[in-house]
Request: fold
Amino acid sequence: MNVDVTAVRGGAPRKRIAKAAALTAMALAVALSAGMLAGCGSSSGASEGQGAAGAPAQDNRGAQNGGSANGGGAAAGSGQSGATTQPTIGMTDFTTATMDGATFTNEDLADYKLTMVNIWSTTCPYCIEEMPGLELLYQSLPEGVNLVGICLDGDFNRQVAESILSESGVTFPVLLDSESLGQSLTGYVSSLPTTVFVDSKGELVGQGLAGVPALGSDEDVADAYLELIEERLGSVQ
Reply:
């Protein structure tokens, strides 16, 4: 089971992260360059995931590397009696650290009506490309909305991650992956970047997104995400 998303242009397979963990510092630079070439030529479309209720997305243009899956409910066991309850995906109970060393938990979501969560890695070229646009979005978020990132390989690839964030001028909080986040959210991500939206309780709101919603200027990226945010604001109290 994966996070309920629609795949869009730019999705990169998460398995590249595991390979990067074993590389030396010099090899990491080579891997990053190779990843950019592979990512740029790996997909031609972007797509949004299924809705919060698990309904298939109407617009599914080239879902890549895992596609979409229902993030909740119960699934009938094949060849077995009864049903198997699937885990609830979200951010309702977790603890992690930020890239700056601060502690960040589900309680930090409580002050915001909606939080956009962008999940990325240092080996994902589209993730890096959209960073300045995400920062532009962060500077113009509607009242009651927050933006945080989760860098999946930020713990063991910290120097590269910090360099990316610095060069992109990122000021929004970027979290490190953790065991509790892996159990509730990041462990179900199969394509990068993946973006989800959660309410003040950490529960998923609407559709997630696998890939980037727009390719172009930073303004194009920010506007595309802002449109998704505004759509989801209408469904939260």
